[in-house]
Every structure is written in structure tokens, then in C-alpha cells.
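Running this now, will post back.
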Amino acid sequence: MYRIFIGTMFLAIATVVSSVEGQQAKAPLPRSAPELQGVSSAGLLQFIDAADSTIESFHSVMVVRNGHVVTEGWWGPYDAKTPHQLYSLSKSFTSVAVGLAIEEGKLSLDDEVAQLFADQMPQNPSDNLKSMRVRDLLTMATGHDSEPRLMAEKQWVKTFLAHPVPKKPGTHFMYNTPSTYMCSAAVQLKTGQTVAEYLQSRLFEPLGFENPTWGKSPEGITLGGYGLNICTEDIAKFGQLCLQKGKWNDRQLIPAAWIEQATSKQISNGTDPKSDWSQGYGYQFWRCRNGGYRGDGAFGQYCIVLPEQDTVIAITSGVKNMQAVLDLVWDKLLPAIGKEQLAEDTSSVAKLAARVSTLQLPKVAGKAVVEQSEKLAGKSFAFDSNGQKIESVEVGKDESKPSLVFTVAGEKVVMPLVSSDWHRQQIRWGSDNMQAIATSAAWTGNDVCTIKLCYVETPFVQTMKLKFDQGTVSLETESNVSFGPTKQPAIVGKLK
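Update: finished.
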């Protein structure tokens, strides 16, 4: 009986501890008035104003000082709960997975890639390939002078290993996303779990990430170098974990030594003192000006850590000029951070709160109905086969609810004209997968209708212009950012 009681007691204690840890993990970061953490509300307001007026597509920002969120904002239709594509900011999470696998004795920085993947090596491998190590994958110093092209292949590891390695690994920095994929493949090889699975209990759950998703390659390997989708506060928590040398709620989630190594300069990557891409590179982390480091992803996804200021800045955006975002941080935000607690400033706190509550990407300004749209009501225009998979567009018949109705890849999409807010819906819009899209549409001329499509889980915002003219409609589409051309070829529809 005594043994049963003791066993039951310890089980109860373990259950309580587990419950408490679970509650701590799900808890958001603590919030604080900026001045209590030594940050000027007026300075934060200047930063928000500058971001809103000078950066075309800012999506979110969260500033954490002394472990407390001192300001946060989302530009509608982006919001706090919707995950955002991180692109190469994902690389820093893969770095953590490698560090944990090394701590567990499953990998080493000096493991040779050729030995890890001996069964997939090409015939007669070069001496440079044979000398490539995990360390070289992490520092983007694989010896390549061009990126291996993986996307069109089914066997990505084999394709990577077959790519020429003209330089000695460890001597030459070249940004190389496939090298991060190989880090992910190495972790999976040695742990038996994908990086996403491996980090679930070791990182994502302890930090309270609600629903992180991370894509896989055709080989079933976590993409590693991109593909992670999480919320802005998750980014901030990750940065705070790094700032705290891997410690979270009294638990050492990541070895402090790994955080120190990964975020320190391991290789030179340029000489421009004004560029944040020339300050040195660690293990999948960039060094910054002003003594900081960061993870970053295409089109302006940032996790900036400033140890000297005890500050973390999480940013998502959709920008062509990524340096402009960092310049804004250094020019406007950094001066707002003081060394000591500041005097209460209730007026500026109130102004800051009011400002961030109204942030919004510009909607289309125009009318719901014009003379031309009344004539076109109920008429449909059909497009020939095109890359956008748009089959037809119809001007809505219901004058009480003006709208355009698109048929895209067999599915109807209704876009209200001049609704009071962004109209949000889950649709495919030519994709195989459902996507969260918000639209704003209006007649901007008697024969021109303009539409904005905001893909709220991504950096992408498209602007479409429909011009109606004597039984035809021409459609022009342009994106704010793109890995290729931002403009789509114009397509023409004919009245059915």
C-alpha cells in the first residue's frame, strides 16, 4: 500500500509539473509599457510611422526588450494568428537541429559529407567533395561556385553530391540553400526523424508554437533552407531563446555553446561596412551591424537579436529592398532603446497603441458601382488558356452586393467591390492547395476595375487591373515581389 501511495504521489507530481510546463509553453511573451523596459514610446511611434510610410509592404513587427513585448503590430489583412512563410529564416531553425544532434552525439561538425552519404556519392568523386564537412554546409562554404539545382529532381541528396566542387571547402563563402538541405538530410539520417519531427518536442512544443508547418522534399526530408511557417510571436520567442543562450523557463533547450558558436562569425562574407550581408556568417545565422545577429528570409522576414541591448525584433514583410528594412531598424528603432528605465509617458503610450491598432495595407480606393458596371452586370468574359488559370470573370448581377466573380481552375471566387474591409476567404486560386487570401476591389475608372489579392500566409500581394472595352476585357497582374518577373503577361477575355 505504501509503495502504491508513493508511486501515485510521484505520478500526480509529474502530472502537475507537466501541466505547468505545458501552460508555460503556451503562454505568450509578457507585455510591458515600453518605458518600464527603457524604450521610448515616442521613438517606437516614429519607427512605426516610418515603416508605414517608407516600406511598401510591411506585414508585422514585434519588439521585445528585457523579455517583454513593448510594441507589436500587424498591417491588415495580416494578423497575429496567421502563420507567415519564413523562407530562409528557416535555416536558423535547421542550425538548432544540427546543434542538438551534435549535443546528443549523433553528428559532428567534422563529419565528412562523403561518409554520411556514401551510398549516394557519384563515381570518382573529387578530392574537394570528399573533404566537405558538416561545418562547411553550415557556413555556406561548400566549395561550390553555383547552387546545385534541386527543384526539378527527385533525388536531391544525389543531385547535390553530383554538383561540381571547384574550390576547397571551408575557404569560400557562397550562399547556398541546398547546403542547408544537406544539413537537414544529415539530421534525419542520424536521428531517424525529419528536422520538423526532431524539433517538435525539443523546440516547438517548449516554446508553445501552435501549429508550425514545414515542407518536405520528394525524398521526404524537411526542406531545411526554407519552408517553415510560423507566427510573428513564434519568431520573437525563437529570438528570445537565442538571446537567453538556449534557456527557456529554467530549461536548457539548446546548448549555450551552440548558440554562441552558431551566432558568431565563422566565415567572412564581404567587406562593405554599410551592408548587413557583409558582417560575417555563422552556422546559418547572419552577423549584423551594431553587434547583433539575425536569421532572415527572402522579401524581408527577420529575427534580429541585439545582445548589447537585450532586444529581439521580429519582422515579416514583402519587400524588394531588404537592406531598407534593416536601415530603418538602425536609424529609427535602435535610438529608442535606452540603458535604463524611462519616466512614464502615458500620452506617447496611448498614441503608439492607437497607431498600431489601425495599421493596414492600402486598400483599393474607388467605387462599388459606375455607369459601365451597370451595363456589364451579369455579363461574363472568357479567357483563353493562360498561366494564371483564370477561365472567366463575370460582373455580379446583384446591385445590392456589387462584386466580380472569377472562375479559376474550375472554382468560383467572389470578390466584393468596395467592402468596408479586406474580404478574406480560403480558395485555391490556381493552386493545388487551399490558400488564405484577402481581397480589396473597386472600380477605379468608368471602365477599369482594380483588385488587390493579399496572400496572407506569404509575402505576396498582387494587383490586378481589368479594363473593359467593347466586348473584351484585358487583365494585367503585377506582384509586389517575386523570385522572377513581377509582371504577368496580359491576358484578354471575350464576352460570352
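Residues 371-495 form a domain with the Lipocalin fold (CATH 2.40.128.20). More later if anyone needs it.
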